[in-house]
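Supplementary Methods, section 5.1.

A reviewer requested that the exact input to the structure prediction be made available. We therefore reproduce it here, unchanged from the version used in the analyses.
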Amino acid sequence: MTSPETLSAGFAERLSTLAADGQVDVVILGAGINGAGLFRDLSAQGVRCLIVEKADFGSGTSAAPSRLIHGGLKYLETGEFGLVAQSTLERNLLLKNAPHCVTALPTIIPIFSWTKGIWAALRTLFGSTSAPRSRGAILIKIGLFIYDYYGSRDRVMPRHKLVGRKAALRDIPAMTKSIVATGTYYDAKISHPERLVLELVTDGLDANPRSAAANYTTLISAGDGVLTFQTESGPAFSVRPKLVVNAAGPWIDHVNAALGVPSKMIGGTKGSHILLKHDELLKALAGRMIYFEADDGRICLVYDYLGLALVGSTDIPADNPDSVVCDPKEIDYMINSVRGLMPGMTFDHSQIVYAYSGIRPLPASNASIPGLISRDHSAPVAEPDQARPFPIISLIGGKWTTFRGFAEEVTDTIVKRLGASRKTTTRAMPIGGGKDFPTTASARADWLKRESVETGLEIARLDQLLTRYGTKAREIARHRGLWTDSDRLPHSTDHSLAEIDFILQNEAVEHLSDIVMRRTTLAITGSLTLFDLQRIAAAMAEVRGWDETRVSVEIEAVTTQLATRNHMRVK
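The structure derived from this sequence is encoded token-by-token as follows.
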């Protein structure tokens, strides 16, 4: 069975115990945001779950969003008022339950006319396949009023406002002079979505000691009511589930085929983003996002993400998530879009620090415009048959913001099918490092002072850890492992080797890429150097017992992926 040398010890022990028994209530295939959210909710209800991911937790589509937690303002155009109502509620709940990584984001909408777009919006609302263009101030004012109304449940942010051209240009002089006004409303952003996925998984493990989670584990056979899996570094194991959930996102149809129930449920689109090193732009944004209309009518965005300008996104029909990459045409499109928004600034390819792309697992649709495909979710069921004694529930569609509500709906269905009932709600359940997080300046100062006395770390360093990991910083600050906190990476000196060691020992790390691309933000922020990569690899070798060949293979895999898929060359 898988050993602590491959998975972190806690994960490995859980998996070994569950595999030895072979009996499990629910198997969840796919550990993206929807699968992880469902795993936490089901485990909290006392349901014994196994969640399995063929790669790393949160490494697929869930690692490629716009990094926004939003209510879906544009969904008002397609009449999806129920989705907006749910999304704004879930946004507000995440601001409360995950304050360590979800924060408010004031958002500016440039407005280029007063009355345009009303009739086009009405046509779209009643089913037209063409999106509105040049949305005017009246239309935007109505939309923001409705948006505020739906966001009133558990409200945590101010209402919208509109200002005229003169005030808008005084605020952001570099913005295009063709505007007539701007609107400002509030949504939210997430600093580290990949870690939030992991936190949901670990919260599920904490909630139910009989549940288990495994990354880098592949389904190799399904028959006679038994699922057999192969771990990357250990032997195969089999379980007999009462119910299976297909949470594979854009891979859902592939997984259903492997389970013997061929389907055509997914019709995904590709979304790409770029991150720019552009201090002048960040100064103008001043912590805000600009949500604007490109020349082709598509909505684009730009905001400060961890000191870089995140620009996105595209929306192109695509169905191969294994080969998805941000291509040159998309990069040109995004640069030209932000150049048109800010003609007073210079933009070029040399400013790109990082790029990424993913497939949105949208429901199959014949919509002529990808942006009009619904972002709502559903959970169709393939009932048992003679060859397959368990039902299969497929998680179709959805969006990052609504994962908790989606999980709640599916959990209610599953516990009913299992003859049980809900024991607790996740509505006010903190996530990971959001538990007991100090949300006021005075509470934060008290927390830092107390932990500094107990751990011996400087307040400034604790403040970094608290920002990065939430209250999980307490455990990391107490962890010394093979190193002390004074052992820093050579170039990214705000990360210590003690911090890396904690991740290695506790967070199911299998590959070097897991650390630099998901457990930390070293890669996406462009702070990763080859020297740092080599130092982290050496630390992993010391803990895992890797030889020089394995170290070289791991370093080559990371540098190749970053160069070919993320437009980043590690130097």
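The first strand starts at residue 23 and ends at 29. These observations are discussed further in the main text.
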